[in-house]
Specification:
This protein is of the alpha/beta class. It folds into 2 domains: 1-71 and 162-265, P-loop containing nucleotide triphosphate hydrolases (Rossmann fold, 3-Layer(aba) Sandwich); 82-160, no CATH class. It has 11 helices and 10 strands. It has a 6-stranded mixed β-sheet with strand order 6-7-8-3-9-10, sandwiched between helices. The chain has a two-stranded antiparallel sheet with strand order 1-2. A two-stranded antiparallel ribbon has the order 4-5. Strand 9 (213-218) and strand 10 (221-226) form a beta hairpin. Bound molecules: adenosine-5'-triphosphate. The site of adenosine-5'-triphosphate has 11 residues, from strand 2 and helix 1.
Length: 265
């Protein structure tokens, strides 16, 4: 796919596949086009050229609100939750896209609606147990620590029972311990729930730990695809990161205090 914003070719002829059951991570310096790829897959943006397919189905003409019903869920770089609702309510709202009941049956609270309500609660409670959120289930999101909110956003995505989970910088803003917990959640989600994961991430320790394959991007293009070790050893990838080292403000530092490009080299 390619996408142009005025004079900026944000994504230029980018092509890759996500295999069922894998964790695939997009890496690259700031401005490489990673979030734009996520926004293309979520249908927030439309490609200027190219095709997007999910399970053999062309997604180019699908509306953004239909993406979740096809089995694609996402989290955002900046957490997007209902701040003045509880954790449980946020998850139930997330779950609502699975509802197949009509407005008519909802109005009269017919048996099909009661059944759907029970299913939603059961699924949401399963996710709360899986991500160990029991302690926070009735707390307002607004009062929760940042690290817990990140897990709640992940839980809300899981409550939709996705086949493909898009995680946009799951470790951003987390401390070392919280990042390690996030790595465990990601591994559990893939192993226990069989969900395929496509992730954008800057923390190379987390990337190496959980990813089967990595796609390295720079300036809107794919530089390399391979295992984390293969991509980290790729000279074009190293150069792309070193090329930004003069502008340290554009590099995200992992919590070790080591610049991202040093962890790559
Ligand atoms: N809506 C938009 N309008 C104009 N330009 C945009 C838009 N979205 C992204 N861009 C530009 O596209 C390029 C790629 O941005 P993108 O946010 O995808 O990079 P990124 O790799 O996700 O960076 P970061 O790691 O900082 O999130 C940048 O030059 C950015 O300014």
């Amino acid at each position: 796919m390619s996408v142009r914003f005025g004079g900026v070719l944000a994504v230029n002829n980018v092509s890759f596949e996500v295999r069922r059951g894998e964790v695939l991570t997009l890496i690259g310096p700031n401005g490489a086009g990673k979030t734009t790829v996520f926004n293309l897959i979520s249908r927030i943006y439309s490609p200027t050229a190219g095709t997007l397919e999910f399970e053999g189905r062309r997604l180019n003409d699908i509306a953004p609100h239909e993406i979740a019903t096809l089995g694609i869920a996402r989290t955002f770089q900046n957490i997007e939750l209902f701040e003045h609702a509880t954790v449980l309510q946020n998850l139930l709202i997330g779950r609502h896209i699975r509802r197949r009941t009509s407005a008519w049956s909802e109005f009269f609270f017919m048996p099909s609606v009661r059944g759907a309500e029970r299913d939603a609660r059961r699924k949401v409670e399963e996710v709360i147990d899986l991500l160990e959120l029991q302690h926070y289930r009735d707390s307002l999101v607004a009062g929760l620590p940042y690290g817990v909110r990140k897990v709640v956003e992940l839980a809300r995505a899981l409550a939709t029972e996705p086949k493909l989970l898009l995680l946009d910088e799951p470790s951003s803003g987390l401390n070392v311990e919280e990042t390690e917990d996030m790595a465990f959640w990601i591994e559990d989600i893939r192993r226990d729930l069989g969900i395929t994961i496509l992730m954008v991430e800057h923390d190379m320790a987390l990337v190496s730990k959980v990813s089967d394959r990595v796609v390295a991007m720079s300036q809107g293009e794919v530089l390399a695809v391979g295992t984390p070790a293969q991509v980290q050893a790729n000279s074009a990838v190293i150069e792309a990161y070193l090329g930004t080292a003069g502008d340290l403000s554009s590099l995200r530092r992992p919590k070790t205090g080591v610049p991202a490009w040093q962890t790559l080299c």
